[in-house]
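hi! just following up on the protien thing from before. the input was this:
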Amino acid sequence: MFASSVHASESQSTSVSTVSSSSKSTQSLTHVKVQINWNHQFQFAGFYAAIKQGYYQQAGLDVNMVSWKPGVNVADEVVSGRADFGVGKGTMIVDYAKGKPLSLIMASFQFSPLVLLAHETVTDLAQLSEKTVMHDGGFQVESLLNKASPEVKKLIHTVTSSGNLQDFIDGKVDYYAAYATNEPYRLKQMGVPFYILDPKSYGVQSYGDFVVTSKKIASLQPGLVKAFKEASIKGWQYAIIHQQETVDFILENYPVVKSRDALLAEAKVTSQYVQTGNVPIGNIDPLKLLASAATAKELGMITPAEFEALNTQDFIFDDSKSFFTEEELAYLKSHPVITLASDSDWAPFEFNDSEKGYSGISADYFKLFERKLGVRFQAVFSDSWDKVAEMTKNGELDIYSCAVATPERKEYMNFTKPYLSFPMALASGDTIKFANEYKQLAGFTIAVVKGYWSHELLKTQYPEVKLLEVTNVVEGLNAVVDGRADGYLGNLAVINYTQHKYGLEGLRIVGQFAERFELAIGVQKSNPVLLSIIQKTLDSVTQEQRDAIFNRWVRLELVTELNNKQLLQIFIPVFLIVFGLLSLVFVYAYQKRQQKSYITQIHELSYATEIDLKTKKVIWSSKSFARLSGYSQDELVGMPYLNLSWKGLDDEEVQTIYKRLLQGYSWSGEMRAKTKNGGSYWIELTLTPNKNLFGHVTTVLATRVNITDKKRVEQLSVTDELTGLFNRRHYNEVIEFEIRRAKREQRSLCVAMLDIDYFKLVNDSYGHPHGDKVLKDVAKQLTLSFHRASDFVFRVGGEEFLAISSFESEAKFIEHLELLRQQIEQLNIENKHAPLKVVTISIGGLYLAADQEMNSEEIFKSVDRMLYAAKQQGRNRIEMFTFAEVS
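and the predicted 3d structure came back as:
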């Protein structure tokens, strides 16, 4: 197998192919373009390796890697068709939420290597005040800047990335967005001093390098997308194992702006981002994706409405869900534009907006269809619905976008199952008092839109009703207002919407009929293939998507006329109920006064506060808690409750507690709190949810037991003297409690055992006093990493440590451990005889899901075995226990 020469066109695309006797001929291959989002380097090694090894060719693909240049938007390149696939930042979820028809194939990096380079050590985000940050988007940087905003005194300046590291070296910018896999090595080689500000240190986590295609390609060519994905994953598997060979191939075939040593250094670091623990290469977790979207919402990158409408499952490519036949796929490919017979004035279902064009409920459905099918639906309007219907009857238009399957229409159209249903309603002024049967309209003049189902119904079945044919709904309702008609017959939702939009006063709904507007999509009888496609696509719309569209447009206000008899029937029972309730109120008030004094005493004894669950702020405090905390009662009211914690809680733990309270369950645990003057105390905290009359949890009662003295005595017996961490004795006590608590609260239990690599060399080379300092430094970093109130860190012997925590998924636990491993390495504690010349750690981890069980002895043996495996396989790595290994 050998590499061909490089072909570079004026468009800066680079095509490299390999040939073997078993490969398909170039003529038979499908040519595809992949737009990357940075310069050619090991960041895209999986794709280069797949070219090198012929994986793409074996899959029938001829892959052309399109070079990046400043200003290129990967999402736009893919959507426009200028590229078939693209590699872009995690902000692709924002592009999708805002309507770009993208399909997410895989994530090259399980967590992002994006960092900020700095000219000085950053210990406080307030240091970013009035500084210039050069970046090109990305959740990591955007989230970090968002976290810094409340801390800075002066505005942070941002500039679009030039892609030129020299701007940072020359001091043109204070902070420069870079990949930890790339620029740091280059700066070290150049002797340029720098510091790293890592967003992950501030809790910012997300995927890196999304691989996407267009919805059109994903729908019409799912086999091609699947083949590309599988070959790319094989490429990454090869690149990780054969780093030198892949680097040489890149240098030989692509315009690389860095040295071979730099590429090799990048390769070594990149591998840990691509493959973490047992997580498959390219894996996408919908929950983690949703968390990224939630971050985007907090940053204002997407609106709350866009977030609510977002369906991450629909964003992720799944070839198993390709339910179109070859004939249907061929039809879509050969018909990029499909015409819709649409009503220009039938809001809220569909109408022609002067600014936005085709709008309404049906329009939203077809916009969703466009994203699913990769075709364009073109709405065709006329000055009257009757003309549009005539054009459709003559075969000039493909689809009725929203219509009732009447007998007349069924003669030339087939219909899908109804996707909207509303009652037939009658609007009138004072002329018609009430009607629930059409025969009651005999002798009255009823306005109907010509060509509508209501027109066809009255014309064919109730000839005794006088009809006033109008061209649209507004004209029909105005005819009732000005007296030309006694009533208007039509769709209830349309009447309601139009009346409110145009301010048509004096009209009310005086009748609803058994017949309903069962609105469906009609397709020409001569086109059964298109009917099948539309029905399948309609079936794929989730209930959440249907609800979001419906709620965006429909706010029904139904008017019902009540006669005197009905009013009397309602009034008498209500009067008796109210009288009875008033009697109970007097009794209740007396009992309440008696209870109030007792409850006040209880609240003072328990240092109670009341917290608003939505805002997480204190809304009331007892006098005793005010004294305990050092604040006044007035100061406590309105204070964020988490501000009272000694070191705060991370978002994951807050969400766990929040969800439990929201479900109506109490939470309790020990917590270290801080006083106003900076002191600390320990409490046993109990959070009890309070429900309103509707059963919704709105506030939380927090009660406390002061256990400060007890904790001080415990601290002496359970603490390691050197590091200040808990000791092995305390681990034996805590682990049993944590196992029971995890089972009780139905949450995961995460355990990690850590060992300082080559620690003997530290003691031998620098002496035991220095070795003790190293142990303290590592212990400090462990404490910073596992800093939640429910986290525990122990020194279990020598240079071995152990941590207990909880994460919502194994992937997130692995990410956390990987970040810790990097942070220890980045402390740059010298160990000159070790392979990397700095202190590193090996980690053995275990993730125990809520439905899995192990006893404390099994847990300790398992993480110890994983730690041993990590050390045996080269150290400075993580090995995770697989639950199937339990014997």
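The mean pLDDT is 84.
Residues 564-605 form the longest helix (42 residues).
cheers
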